[in-house]
Amino acid sequence: MGPLIHALQDQAFGVRSCAALSLGLLGDQRAVEPLIKALKDFDYTVREQVALALGLLGDFRAVTPLKNALQDSSQTVRNRVVLALQMLGKYQDQMELS
User: What mean pLDDT value characterizes the chain?
Assistant: First the structure.
């Protein structure tokens, strides 16, 4: 997991983007804080994948940073943030039913 977290700072946006999505798919909560930081990446495609990854991880530490990202300059990022927040809401609903 360390190499993927490190890849979030790679010079190539494609590497950062793939690393973000991979971290979300792996489901390891240690990725949450680095992904939250990556929500401020200068490339919108990276921010899109970061938002999705945070939604996949289902960690509520991401709620406030995701809500802040609703102000992103990119419409596609904002759409992905909405999806991530919906995913987090489903995790919360499942926890309440347990």
Answer: 94
The CATH number that domain 2-97 falls under is: 1.25.10.10
Please state, in angstroms and rounded to a whole number, the distance separating the CA atoms of residues 84 and 73: 17
- Identify whether the C-beta of residue 21 lies closer than 8 Å to the C-beta of residue 52: yes
**Hey, where are the domains in the chain?**
2-97
Within 8 A by CB and 6+ apart from 76, the residues are: 44, 48
**Separation between Cα atoms, residue 59 and residue 54, nearest integer Å:** 7
End-to-end CA distance of the chain: 30
What are the start-end ranges of the H helices in the chain?
2-7, 13-26, 32-38, 44-57, 63-68, 75-97
Share of the chain above pLDDT 70, in %: 92
> d(Cα 31, Cα 56) in Å, to the nearest integer?
11
